[in-house]
Amino acid sequence: MIIIITAASLGIVMGLLNMAKPPPTIGCVSLSPEVIEARDDGNGTYVNDSFSLNITVTDGSGSRLSGAVVTLSGDNIKMNGGAAYAITKDGKASFTQLSCSLAGAGTNPIVVTVEKSGYGKKTQELIVVKV
């Protein structure tokens, strides 16, 4: 009798485990362009006063992810003089009239952060090249 109850309980537990799905995740974050150029302004600061950035976001299964918040940070990045963020529609976010500036030697990437409730958070770096 105990063996039958144990076997039945084990079968129920295994069935529940098979029904459990992994939580949804943010999959791929694609940037276009992948590199931004900044030019020396003559005072040791490298600047790009006007560029655009297109971002495509998918979920873990490869489907385009709508409603994700995309934030750009670092290198004094601005959009129309203010904070640079957007919400994806059909998995896409477009940024126009962006500007960035960085001083001194070395490289500092712009950090692209994508977040959506229930999907988590993913970051990717946009390289800024001093020319």
Describe the structure.
By secondary structure, the chain is mostly beta strands. It has one domain: Immunoglobulin-like. Helices cover 14% and strands 53% of the residues. The chain has 1 helix and 9 strands. The chain has one helix spanning 2-19, and strands at residues 26-32, 35-40, 45-59, 69-73, 78-79, 84-87, 92-103, 110-116, 120-130. Strands 1, 2, 3, 4, 5, 6, 7, 8 and 9 form a 9-stranded mixed beta sheet that branches. A hairpin with a 3-residue loop joins strand 8 and strand 9 (120-130). The longest helix is centred in the first third of the chain and has 18 residues, at 2-19. The model has no long low-confidence stretch (mean pLDDT 88).
What's the helix and strand layout?
Blueprint: H1 2-19, E1 26-32, E2 35-40, E3 45-59, E4 69-73, E5 78-79, E6 84-87, E7 92-103, E8 110-116, E9 120-130
Parallel strand pairs: 2-9
Antiparallel strand pairs: 1-3, 2-3, 3-7, 4-6, 4-8, 5-7, 8-9
Features of this protein?
single chain; 131 residues; mainly beta; Immunoglobulin-like; 9-stranded mixed beta sheet; 1 helix; 9 strands; 14% helix
